[in-house]
User: Which sequence fits this backbone?
């Protein structure tokens, strides 16, 4: 019986040693898997950081091009050449507003009213302000009412609309 006890004790000891070896091997595999996962996460994070930096550099380049007034190598725009409205644009605006001027009293002389007009990119008038009165209150008010009635201005020949501009009105235009 003693031999059976010894055999059982040896078997138990061998089983415990094998379990300890299995546990150590499992721990080693888990540590290796954790290292591999950390490496993969670090690589993914580095790739994301590189993509963010590339996008940042591209954005900075676009901003530099906008500030310098010139486009990129493929740019065909004319913004650097002519930043203002075309020569006939003021006439087109006056032609749009002029039919809306309704005078209640006759005007003597040829007073000139200068008005600042603010518009949205689609041409909708969002504000107007008398910059330099003409000296004839009736003419000034008639011009401001005409701008209010007009509501929307035409686009320039290049399709743009200056956001803010001044325009002069005289009765004998």
Assistant:
């Amino acid at each position: 019986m003693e031999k059976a006890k010894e055999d059982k004790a040896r078997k138990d000891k061998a089983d415990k040693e094998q379990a300890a070896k299995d546990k150590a091997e499992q721990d080693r595999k888990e540590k290796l898997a954790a290292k591999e996962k950390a490496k993969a996460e670090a690589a993914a994070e580095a790739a994301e950081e590189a993509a963010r930096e590339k996008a940042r550099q591209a954005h900075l380049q676009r901003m530099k091009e906008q500030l310098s007034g010139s486009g990129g190598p493929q740019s065909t725009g004319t913004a650097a050449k002519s930043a203002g409205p075309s020569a006939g644009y003021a006439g087109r605006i006056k032609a749009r507003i002029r039919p809306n001027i309704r005078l209640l009293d006759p005007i003597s002389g040829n007073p000139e009213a200068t008005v600042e007009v603010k518009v949205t990119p689609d041409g909708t008038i969002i504000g107007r302000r008398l910059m330099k009165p003409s000296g004839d209150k009736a003419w000034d008010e008639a011009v401001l009412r005409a701008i209010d009635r007009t509501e929307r201005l035409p686009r320039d020949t290049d399709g743009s609309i200056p956001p803010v501009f001044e325009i002069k009105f005289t009765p004998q235009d």
In short: The first strand starts at residue 113 and ends at 119. The beta strands are 113-119, 125-132, 164-169.
